[in-house]
Amino acid sequence: MAIDIEPMLASPSSIPIYLINGVGTVWDAQVAATLHCVHGISGLRVGTLPGVSSQNGFLGLPITLMQEETAYLVRQGIAHLVPVNPNPTHSLPTSAEVQKYSAERVRRLRELEASMRDLEVENARKAKAKFTQAGEAAAAKREARARIRAEKAAKGGVELFEPEEPAPTSKPIAKTSLEPLRGTHFHDIAPHPHFPALAHLPSITSLPHPLFPFPSSARDRALLATFTRLLSLDLRVGLGPRFGGEFLVYPGDYLRYHAHYTSQVVVGEEAIRPAEIVAWGRLGTGTKKAGLICCWEEEEGGEEDGVEFYSLEWANFG
Question: CDD domains from the entry (predicted)?
Fold first, then answer.
């Protein structure tokens, strides 16, 4: 298959994924949240905190993406790849760039703090004004009722147990919408890297590419087609090698559900041995998951259209 290397401009709304040694990585928390909540892409957190003893429970940024996840995002126009210069002497940002980025971050936080303080002061002022106004109105009503009773008593027409006049109902308070904060922790996702010195080649918007040669073979296309098809069925897909499969398939967010299937991808007319079927069935039962056989046949109508699924569960004899 010919590899298209013609450069194309990324969409302004496209998410940057930094390509480091052929692996797509995400370094921004907002981007990670967008991929997870909107596009169903979770990736794998690999960042460590040296001061935390339990590293496995506190992994964070950066997030590494599977080849299928990266290719899916690029082909759907959701993201583009930003190749990162592997030479450390040129990859590291300069002191001026670090200071500029840090100053911008501090400025955003200070704007947020100032806007929150202004909002608290304004809310306190409005509450105090409403309280004072309500107190003055109540005092005026009491004085008016006392004056009326005094006038009636002076005229001799007041009764001993004359009921008080009902207090008039107050007018409903109009709802006021708060103005949006000028500063916020969230910011627009720029389609270019924060440090331009990190990128040494144009952005990659079409695959396969010499720096990311996936999908290039029939099996690569089968994996990508299976991944795309599963996502189109509102399923979540994760890494499956530790459970003996290509993918782990979740019925929803993997933070809420356990995986229901461990998948095996079969390409075209590839033969399946009976021993493999038995092994896949027993493997799924041993891991409390059903086996999912994904058969892919390349078609002209679209790669994901040629995927068929068969569930497999192990049953005892006798």
Answer: tRNA-intron_lyase_C (cd22363)
**Residue of 141, 185, 258, 288 marked catalytic:** 258
The pLDDT tens digits for 66-88 are: 999 999 999 999 999 999 876 66
Cβ contact 18:197 at 8 Å: no
**Known active-site residue 36:** no
**CATH says 1-93+195-215 is which class?**
alpha beta
pTM of the model: 0.63
Both tokens of 197, joined, read 């010195």
Q: How far apart are CA 201 and CA 190, in angstroms?
A: 17
Q: How far apart are CA 285 and CA 201, in angstroms?
A: 47
Using DSSP, state whether 4 is helix, strand or coil.
coil
How many angstroms separate the most distant Cα atoms in the chain? Answer: 111
d(CA 75, CA 124): 51
Among 18, 72, 250, 261, the active-site one is: 250
Tell me if 214 sits within 8 A of 207, measured CB to CB.
yes
Q: For residue 241, give Cα distances in angstroms to 16, 62, 108, 210, 310.
A: 27, 21, 42, 26, 19
Tens digits of per-residue pLDDT, 132-166? 888 888 888 888 888 888 888 887 654 544 555 55
- Which phi and psi angles does 82 have, rounded to 5°? -115, 105
Here the tokens at position 248 are 């782990």
- Structural class in CATH, domain 217-318: alpha beta
Residue 257 among the catalytic residues:
no
Answer yes or no: 185 catalytic.
no
Domain spans of the chain?
A: 1-93+195-215, 102-189, 217-318
